[in-house]
């Protein structure tokens, strides 16, 4: 099995506590909350809330970001996606609907953050992001073509699709650490009308692994969930590919293959 950060046991342990589930419920409703705001929603001390948030962070279910002097907390759906790929899709189909409802709840804010640990090198991870053939293996069968220089354009295409799927500009290119891109979806009139948003890939070495953080921001309030709902599957597929050489075969991952 492909484990996530501290392991799937950490995820189940974190979810076993009702207070921690309440914290996740609050982030389901409104992502990017500060400690003070979360504390006000629960009947416990600030120290107690901090302890529970620390457990959720260690399990990878919560990711934090600094915005000036504030520390914001975001729900990270990737561990849930990995659990679904390992068990739910095989043995508990009725729960898929519940996870879909959860996914819909997650897709209501201006910024989404997805974090995952992958046992690989920064160079190999970067190559998997920018190489069109490798990218197509975990990104719905869609490869991305560009010369990967700052200010250059890129285009995401598949031989199975008559049009480009995504296009944009490479705003910042710093291999093998950071890639910032504008993002304009083209696969339907509904997503075209959403205009341009931004995707940032950040790679940080951690011992013999890398922490990959994908941030999709500059989205309008209530933006079409198709724009960013596929990221958990994409980063899960990337982890699976680099650690095992295998591909995810869940239906969405085969969209353009």
Report how far the terminal alpha carbons are from each other. 24 Å
- Low confidence ranges: 1-5
Rounded Rg: 18 Å
The tally of helices reads 10
Residue fraction in strands: 15-25%
**What is the level-2 CATH architecture name of the largest domain?**
2-Layer Sandwich
Classified by CATH, the class of the largest domain is Alpha Beta
Extended strand count: 9
| Tally of domains | 2
Read across the widest sheet, the strand sequence of neighbours is 3-9-8-7-6-5-4
Helix proportion of residues, in percent? 25-40%
> What is the typical, i.e. mean, pLDDT?
85
Major sheet attributes: 7 strands, antiparallel
CATH superfamily of the largest domain: START domain
Task: Estimate the global geometry from the Cα principal axes.
Answer: globular
Assign the structural class, choosing from mainly alpha, mainly beta, alpha/beta, alpha+beta, or little secondary structure. Answer: alpha+beta
Order of helices and strands: HHHHEEHHEHHEEEEHEEH
Do you know the CATH topology of the largest domain?
Answer: Alpha-D-Glucose-1,6-Bisphosphate, Chain A, domain 4
How are the SSEs ordered, and which strands pair?
Elements: H1 8-15, H2 18-29, H3 35-41, H4 46-58, E1 62-67, E2 70-75, H5 78-91, H6 94-106, E3 112-118, H7 122-130, H8 132-138, E4 143-145, E5 153-157, E6 166-174, E7 178-185, H9 189-192, E8 196-206, E9 209-217, H10 231-244
Antiparallel strand pairs: 1-2, 3-9, 4-5, 5-6, 6-7, 7-8, 8-9
């Amino acid at each position: 099995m492909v484990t996530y950060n501290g392991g799937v046991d950490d995820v189940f342990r974190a979810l076993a506590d009702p207070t921690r589930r309440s914290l996740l419920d609050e982030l389901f409703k409104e992502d990017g909350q500060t400690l003070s705001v979360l504390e006000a929603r629960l009947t416990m001390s600030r120290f107690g809330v901090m302890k529970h948030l620390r457990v959720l962070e260690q399990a990878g279910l919560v990711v934090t970001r600094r915005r000036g002097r504030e520390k914001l907390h975001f729900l990270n759906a990737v561990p849930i996606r990995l659990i679904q790929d390992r068990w739910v899709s095989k043995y508990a189909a009725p729960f898929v609907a519940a996870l879909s409802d959860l996914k819909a709840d997650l897709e209501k804010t201006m910024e989404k953050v997805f974090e995952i640990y992958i046992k690989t090198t920064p160079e190999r991870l970067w190559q998997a992001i920018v190489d069109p053939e490798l990218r197509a293996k975990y990104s719905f069968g869609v490869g991305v073509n560009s010369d990967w220089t700052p200010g250059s354009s890129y285009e995401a295409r598949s031989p199975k699709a008559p049009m480009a799927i995504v296009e944009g500009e490479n705003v910042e290119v710093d291999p093998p650490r950071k890639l910032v891109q504008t993002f304009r979806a083209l696969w339907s009139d509904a997503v075209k009308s959403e205009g341009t948003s931004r995707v940032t890939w950040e790679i940080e070495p951690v011992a013999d692994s890398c922490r990959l953080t994908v941030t999709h921001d500059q989205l309008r309030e209530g933006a079409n969930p198709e724009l960013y709902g596929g990221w958990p599957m994409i980063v899960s597929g990337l982890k699976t590919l680099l650690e095992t050489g295998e591909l995810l075969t869940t239906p969405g991952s085969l969209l353009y293959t």
